[in-house]
Amino acid sequence: MSGDIVFFDLPGKDAEATAKFWQSLFGWEFKEGNFPGYSMIHGPNPMGGTSHGDTSQFPRVYFSVDDVNAAIERVRELGGTAGEPVTIPAGVFANCVDDQGVEFSIFQTVNE
């Protein structure tokens, strides 16, 4: 469904310390991601990930959309900004900022 949260990223300056904190708090398991410098977080629903060396201060949420290109246009029409789409094995996403400066991402799942 469009608008559901389907993924999240946790920032982590130090990958080992980030994993230790969240594993101790929630029992989550961190595994090697599908590209260097990225870990997948297994345990929460929806699943998450963490970029090693990410210095941002807040988690990023990914909202499901049916058509990432149409959603990018709509974000821009509403006064927000949207980056170009990025294709990964699971689908296509774009990082965005709303008209108040809040960062988020939109994600379209790969059609199988």
Task: Describe the model.
- The protein is of the alpha+beta class.
- It folds into two domains: 1-59, 2,3-Dihydroxybiphenyl 1,2-Dioxygenase, domain 1 (Roll), CATH 3.10.180; 65-112, 2,3-Dihydroxybiphenyl 1,2-Dioxygenase, domain 1, CATH 3.10.180.10.
- 20% of the residues lie in helices and 41% in strands.
- It contains two helices and nine strands, in the order βαββββαββββ.
- Strands 1, 2, 3, 4, 5, 6, 7, 8 and 9 form a nine-stranded mixed beta sheet that branches.
- A hairpin with a 5-residue loop joins strand 2 and strand 3.
- It comes from Streptomyces lomondensis.
- This is VOC domain-containing protein.
- Residues 4-109 form the VOC domain.
- InterPro entries: Anthracycline_SecMetBiosynth, Glyas_Bleomycin-R_OHBP_Dase, Glyoxalase_6, VOC_core.
- It holds the Pfam family Glyoxalase_6.
CATH superfamily of the largest domain: 2,3-Dihydroxybiphenyl 1,2-Dioxygenase, domain 1
Q: Architecture of the largest domain, according to CATH? A: Roll
Distance between the termini: 16 Å
Class based on secondary structure composition and strand pairing: alpha+beta
Number of helices: 2
H/E element string?
EHEEEEHEEEE
Tally of strands: 9
Q: Hey, roughly how much beta strand do the residues contain?
A: 35-45%
Report the sheet with the most strands, covering strand number, pairing sense and barrel closure.
Answer: 9 strands, mixed
Protein name: VOC domain-containing protein
Domain VOC: 4-109
